[in-house]
């Protein structure tokens, strides 16, 4: 479903600030695969998601979604195929619009042009049903402005908006990191439910190793622009955070002082 082939991305090439963020990255996700992505600061995790979403273009390599070459498509052109939730709960929703208006826009994103963006009775009843599944009482607040919601509620709404038009790929970029533990647990649970319900092919970046191990069907570890470890489901269920750190140290030849993986 997702094929990232020999992708290289360099920021400020040829200057003193040159930084190779991705080096010949090769990643293939089968339909419905849910891959968690961990790695130290600056490893290239967000850059990888930005390359998949189309926010950034690689200077080398290609990106295919569902067999279609999207390498040259801008992010808005890929929005039909790709849903994304960011770390900042404020990023995924329009605060001055109501809950139902936000949902109507998200629904339209998955469809052909020309369909009405308005909120019909049929849509409203679907929104109510979808919101009820979040168990946050938002189904009774369809006409409330999104800016009035808490961070956790907004993130839950962002997640729903990113998933309910059933994108081919779902990208989650540390989407629970800015929330308190209780809200993070809620969003984690909703993520698992929505991914399962819609059978979504998912890439989730996290700094939380427990979360990376407990969620998804596969785990990859990045370091200095490369995928240095790829753990399948069978192995993942037997792996602990300490195992991951030991593996990281072994691959890097020991002497590791970057403990960010342990967060
Ligand atoms: N827009 C940009 N301009 C210049 N350099 C960038 C840009 N975005 C990322 N980089 C650099 O590319 C490298 C990879 O960054 P990236 O944000 O992808 O890492 P990350 O694994 O997501 O890190 P973190 O866990 O700290 O968010 C870093 O060295 C970073 O400084």
UniProtKB/TrEMBL annotation:
SMART domains named in the record: AAA
Location within or outside the cell: Cell membrane
Domain ABC transporter, first and last residues per copy: 2-249
Primary location recorded for the protein, binned into one broad class: membrane
Gene Ontology molecular function: any one: ATP hydrolysis activity
Membrane topology value: Peripheral membrane protein
Alphabetic keyword roster: ATP-binding, Cell membrane, Membrane, Nucleotide-binding, Transport
Cellular component, GO, one term: plasma membrane
Keyword Transcription regulation: no
The protein, known as: Putative ABC transport system ATP-binding protein
Organism, scientific name: Georgenia soli
